[in-house]
Amino acid sequence: MAAGVPPDVLGRRISCGTDYGTVRYVGSVSRTAGIWLGVEWDDPQRGKHDGNYEGMQYFKCRYPKGGSFIRPNKANFGVDFLTAVKDRYGLNDKQDVQYGTEDAVVFGTKTVEFVGMDSVAEQQRQVQLNKLVDISVRECAVSHAGQEEEISRTCANMRHINLSKNLLSSWETVIAIASQVQNLETLNVSENKMRFPSISSFTSRAFSNLKILALNQTEITWTEVLLCAQGWPVLEELYLSSNNITVLERPDNVLQTLKLLDLSDNQLLDGNQLHLIAQLPRLEQLILRNTGISSIYFPDAGFGCKTKMFPSLKRLAINDNKISQWSSLNELDKLPSLRALQCNNNPFMDTEKNPETLIQLIIAKISQLEVLNNCEILPAERRGAELDYRKIFGKDWLEAGGHWNPEKNKPSEEFLAAHPRYLTLCLKYGAPEEGELKGQQPLTLKNQLLTLTIKCPEKPEQNAVEKKLPESMTIQKVKGLLYRLFKIPGSELKLSYQSSKLEGKEVELDNDLKPLQFYSIESGDCVLVRW
Predict the structure, then answer these.
(1) Cα–Cα nearest to 526, from 505, 356, 446, 489
(2) The CATH number of domain 259-377 is 2.40.50.100
(3) Domains of the chain: which residue ranges?
(4) pTM, two decimal places
(5) For residue range 333-390, what is the model confidence (pLDDT) as tens digits?
(6) What does the alpha-carbon distance between residue 385 and residue 364 come to, in Å, rounded to a whole number?
(7) Which residue from 28, 108, 282, 385 has the least number of CB within 10 angstroms?
(8) Start and end of every CAP-Gly domain (predicted)?
(9) Fold designation for 449-530
């Protein structure tokens, strides 16, 4: 092996300038002298070939231009953990003071003699390292643990470590570092393309206190997650973003303490994969952003019933997916603990042009929701959404067999499948009256828009704003808009308006169920907001 090339170089992670890669070959190359490293680069366009050079296959790459040869002296094989820590926190021999002769320290141009100064400085560095609790050595080229037990002697109080984007080649290296940190609670090893164990092996106690673990962009599979998870007995948060995880398996006897799971940016095979993780008893937050799912279905529960799946799930993120049917939103009402939902950028949201109506439909469909797309749902907003939902679909209800007489109220299965909460809303507010259903506007913004100025007369610090609102918009919907616009706490809004035609007079907008056009509001009028 050439000088400077580690004996275990095959499979090692290296950097070369700002580029990262994995060594796939070491040896000679035809018609050249000396040793070369064949590198598969993380950037698929960084190389010149796929490991095939002049008709000879030296190594293999996933991409046609993913590989190239470099000389060993161009490769950075990394440093041990403690060296990186000392460099990052200015606690190595080369910083703070400049050493002259063995027992002298140079301050500017003056040399001062000290006896045993080296040992004193080392003791001071040890004290400073021992004080470190939260350590970040991101992008510090860490590749190995260093001498055995050196970390535990030097950094005994570490609890939180950021090791992201380094040169870690295997999970064993992570264990070698973590096993020397007795009270490790948080570990981030994201952006390290590592080898993970493929068979069940001895379970290390290195992670016996670990609560938070980030493994984003590490190329770990779900099978490998479950094997490693045997050593994570108290883990509460697990981040697995961007790992090409497509298939899940049931986590039997592992991950049972998990409260948060992030699977974002993994293209799952289908929404039914979620059933395999649905029995995690303590899972409160599930992040499924950009996972390619197109539907959600809980087959164990019928209309108006709660599923036994995800019993503790409070917060769900399904934004940036392919969900096109409102039936998936109906399914979310089956989750017994759901309180917060993120669902932006899904095709079903394109079926409704009016964003206010869209929000109301989601609120009305999921009974326990308190936060939608990071906005709090106030009680008045929920009441308005449910009242409007009951009215909007009133005609469909009647045509499907609904009736004002409870004994004759038997809408079809198809209607109940599309609107599973409708009967509950009728019980809560009463069935929609016949007068409410006359001339019902369609669920698109085809009607005339009013340009209105909105002011808060008692809050001069609030600037007036101009809004275009449909004349069919109910006062309740206007209030919902204003709650978010002015970030008003859960107090009761009072609305009125002034018109140039009614000089000096204010007209109260006192009926939440009436549309703006009921009050003869016109473009150019001013809506006054008080609370």
Answers:
(1) 505
(2) no
(3) 12-74, 78-92+122-258, 259-377, 382-437, 449-530
(4) 0.78
(5) 999 999 999 999 999 999 888 888 999 999 999 999 999 999 999 999 999 999 999 9
(6) 6
(7) 108
(8) 27-71
(9) Ubiquitin-like (UB roll) (3.10.20)
